Amino acid sequence: MTRDINPAAPPSGPGCVECTANGNWWFHLRRCAACGHVGCCDQSLGRHATAHFHATGHAVMQSFEPGEDWFWNYALDAEVRGVALAPPTSHPRSQPTPGPAGAVPADWMAQLEAR
């Protein structure tokens, strides 16, 4: 275990912590490999995974999308190898992307393109 990866840390929940708290939506999700914080990706309007890195210094995250297992290191700005993290390894397959269900506006693609 390193400062950037704690395999025992469970994910903080099935969606972006900040977006969920604010009633917002996200495009894709990323999970902090150090503490389990789930935040939205840089393609999302909130960019909460990157904000979590800047606030905490936790540099390594893993995709929290079903079927994806890659890791990214913000400090290196590069894909890195990781280890198996505590389950679950993604948001529920029943949760749509973008998500969460019921919070995604009809014009979500236009909103992402406009940013």
From TrEMBL:
InterPro entries: Znf_RING/FYVE/PHD, Znf_UBP. One of its GO terms (molecular function) is zinc ion binding. It comes from the Bacteria. Residues 85-106 are annotated as: Disordered. Residues 1-96 form the UBP-type domain. This is UBP-type domain-containing protein. It comes from Sandarakinorhabdus fusca. The lineage of its organism: Bacteria, Pseudomonadati, Pseudomonadota, Alphaproteobacteria, Sphingomonadales.
